[in-house]
């Protein structure tokens, strides 16, 4: 269903060949390695610099494979480099949310009962490895691991890298520097200094910690094809299935609450009270070990603009728009950056014009998904439990079934379509207004009808 993009570089059919550029990509995470593939596909010389060692050679951390939900936008971007099928082959489909209440009873809310689309749970490490392997297959991508960008002079296209155990910085240059170096991007720090660059960041007062529900007798301990959620108002827990039949569990709650759980007993009591069904699956000893092993992590949302500097620098992915993880869209949005960028670059405009067009076409949607992610944080931990939410969900699903083209619910437009994020919000506002009017109309109509019946009785 996702079409791949093809490019023309030859002069033979009258189209001017895209100039070959030396492109440096900083960060070989999910977005950086995909960016390398895109730029190489367009005929550039690519140097991919990564701070960490090659994850394919890194030591395996048993049973702690961190996973992500892949949806339409990420799939489309992977399809453009011919990797969608390969990724989906080992991914685990999740057809809906399985909600666990305080007594351990479960209920299912399907994501898409109408057209049956689903999210896919993918291992971060596996996906990153697959992308890096694809990079190796390109003669024009050179990977440089253990190269940490220390400083950059973006106007000059100069970079300095730090290597482990080497006192001297290493210099390198490029025509274009692309920062895919994550939420704490070093390249973005350079952009922050340029005049006219808007930047804001927000830490939420909630932290997260990862736990694990291991496989038992070689089998999943819960139904695998769901995203499991334990909504508890001000906090929550979620679990996504892994290839090895374990689940990665993410416990999200305010830092003050984390701080209150100081002893083993307090932790176990807390789980017995709130996550009674999950406790035996995680295992008491394992829970204690995993919980006290690490501190809860902070979550950051970043908005900035523009994403480029002349024809010299560009930031993509979390470097450009980090978001809280509650819509499962961070990676998907970062990958979608590349779908948009590729389509703009294929128009063969001067590079500075193309990059400016990228910023202009992207920032509203990036801001929108940051806002949506913040909103979904409330929805997941709180609203999913409420009747009003379930009623709305039912109404949305019914209308979607009746008018599949006209009525696409918010969650579906974000996760299962490529509708620009800002339009997803506008679409939802239009739906809310219509439903509001419909309710008023129904209320008025019943009042009038009631009044008429009453009046008739009086006569
Ligand atoms: C708990 C959690 C759950 C999430 N779940 C989902 C989900 O279900 N679905 C989804 O779509 N998204 C999810 N996300 C978001 C997703 O993880 C990010 O959006 C995604 O990883 C962004 O990719 P990236 O390549 O831009 O950045 P990163 O993955 O952060 O990669 C950045 C890379 O740059 C390297 N680097 C950093 N600094 C330097 C430097 N100075 N020099 C050289 N290299 C450097 C890093 O080592 C790293 O390899 C989740 C995030 C969190 C925290
Ligand atoms: C890779 O770069 C070389 C020059 O170094 C060039 O001749 C070749 O066409 C490039 N290959 C691709 C696929 O762009
Ligand atoms: C920065 O933000 C201000 C205030 O919101 C806005 O007026 C201005 O246009 C923004 N600048 C850019 C480059 O977007």
TrEMBL record:
Annotated ranges, domain FAD-binding: 22-349
Main location: mitochondrion
Reactions this protein catalyses: L-kynurenine + NADPH + O2 + H(+) = 3-hydroxy-L-kynurenine + NADP(+) + H2O
Gene Ontology cellular-component annotations: mitochondrial outer membrane
Localization, UniProt: Mitochondrion; Membrane
Pfam (any one): FAD_binding_3
EC id: 1.14.13.9
Bilayer-spanning residue ranges: 434-455
Keywords, comma-separated and alphabetical: FAD, Flavoprotein, Membrane, Mitochondrion, Monooxygenase, NADP, Oxidoreductase, Pyridine nucleotide biosynthesis, Transmembrane, Transmembrane helix
The keyword Oxidoreductase belongs to this UniProt entry's keyword annotation: yes
Membrane topology listed for this record: Multi-pass membrane protein
Pathway: Cofactor biosynthesis; NAD(+) biosynthesis; quinolinate from L-kynurenine: step 1/3
One annotated GO molecular function: kynurenine 3-monooxygenase activity
Broad enzyme group: oxidoreductase
InterPro entries in alphabetical order: FAD-bd, FAD/NAD-bd_sf, Kynurenine_monooxygenase
One example of a Gene Ontology biological process annotation: L-tryptophan catabolic process
Cofactor names: FAD
HAMAP family the record matches: Kynurenine_monooxygenase
Function: Catalyzes the hydroxylation of L-kynurenine (L-Kyn) to form 3-hydroxy-L-kynurenine (L-3OHKyn). Required for synthesis of quinolinic acid.
Family named by the database record: Belongs to the aromatic-ring hydroxylase family. KMO subfamily.
Name of this chain's protein: Kynurenine 3-monooxygenase
């Amino acid at each position: 269903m996702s079409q791949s993009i093809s490019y023309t570089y030859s002069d033979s059919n009258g189209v001017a060949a895209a100039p070959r550029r030396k492109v440096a990509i900083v960060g070989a995470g999910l977005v950086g390695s995909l960016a390398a593939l895109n730029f190489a596909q367009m005929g550039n010389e690519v140097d991919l610099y990564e701070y960490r060692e090659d994850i394919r050679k890194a030591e395996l951390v048993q049973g702690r494979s961190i996973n992500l939900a892949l949806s339409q936008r990420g799939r489309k971007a992977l399809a453009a480099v011919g990797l969608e099928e390969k990724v989906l082959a080992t991914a685990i489909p999740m057809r809906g949310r399985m909600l666990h209440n305080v007594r351990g009873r479960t209920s299912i809310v399907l994501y898409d009962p109408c057209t049956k689309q689903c999210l896919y749970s993918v291992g971060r490490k596996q996906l990153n490895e697959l992308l890096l392997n694809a990079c190796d297959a390109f003669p024009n991508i050179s990977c440089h691991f253990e190269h940490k960008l220390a400083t950059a002079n973006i106007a000059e296209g100069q970079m300095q890298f730090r290597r482990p155990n080497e006192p001297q910085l290493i210099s390198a240059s490029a025509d274009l520097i692309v920062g895919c170096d994550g939420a704490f991007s070093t390249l973005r720090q350079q952009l922050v200094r340029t005049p006219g660059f808007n930047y804001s960041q927000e830490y939420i007062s909630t932290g997260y910690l990862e736990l694990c529900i291991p496989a038992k007798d070689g089998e999943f301990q819960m139904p695998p094809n769901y995203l499991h959620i334990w909504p508890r108002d001000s906090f929550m827990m979620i679990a996504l299935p892994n290839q090895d039949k374990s689940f990665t569990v993410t416990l999200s709650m305010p830092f003050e609450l984390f701080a209150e759980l100081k002893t083993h007993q307090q932790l176990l009591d807390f789980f017995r009270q709130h996550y009674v069904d999950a406790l035996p699956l995680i295992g008491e000893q394992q829970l204690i070990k995993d919980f006290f092993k690490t501190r809860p992590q902070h979550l950051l949302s970043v908005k900035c603009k523009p994403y480029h500097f002349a024809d010299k620098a560009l930031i993509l992915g979390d470097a450009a728009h980090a978001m809280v993880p509650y819509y499962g869209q961070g990676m998907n949005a970062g990958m979608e950056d590349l779908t948009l960028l590729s389509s703009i670059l294929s128009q063969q405009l001067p590079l500075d014009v193309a990059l400016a067009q990228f910023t202009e076409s992207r920032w509203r949607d990036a801001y929108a998904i940051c806002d949506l992610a913040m909103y979904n944080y409330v929805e997941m931990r709180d609203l999913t439990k409420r009747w009003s939410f379930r009623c709305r969900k039912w109404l949305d699903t019914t209308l979607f079934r009746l008018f599949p083209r006209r009525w696409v619910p918010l969650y579906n437009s974000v996760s299962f379509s490529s509708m620009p994020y800002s339009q997803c919000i506008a679409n939802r506002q239009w739906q809310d207004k219509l439903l509001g009017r419909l309710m008023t109309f129904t209320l008025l109509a019943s009042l009038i009808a009631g009044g008429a019946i009453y009046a008739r009785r009086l006569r």
